[in-house]
Amino acid sequence: MASDDTELPVPGSVGLPPWRDGFVLPARAESAGEARRRLRGLLGRRGVGEGTRDTAVLVVSELFTNVVVHTDSESVACEVREERAAGGGEGSVHIEVCGHGPGSPDPCTRLPEEEHGRGLLLVEAVSTAWGIRDGGPGRGWSVWARLPLAVEGGR
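Structure (tokenized):
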């Protein structure tokens, strides 16, 4: 993982491999705030544009909160990586959040009067794609989202 003061290449730089990074935090409500801070810094150091950073921070907050509320996981892992499009088109940022305890991501339909339970609907609305992976019995699950990769300066 990169340190906070490392100069990193611009996303999509020719000849460089796509980047990948991540972190693990305790499965506590306050970890969502720490996840937002870490992801914003990581994407900023990678040269990811502000709009993509803002959306990514919203997504990671919803996914972290989902793990904390709906599982008995002791920790939450987040992986973020650059995905490049074939033929040099616009790439994407892939965010995956994993819980390791029993429970489920709870993507059920909510009634309009309910105050909670819209996190995955929000993730779906702001992502180009998203999904849930079941790790198998006793192995937890992960939820991922893909966002368009805009870089600083519109490159």
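The first helix runs from residue 31 to 45. The two ends are 24 Å apart (CA to CA).
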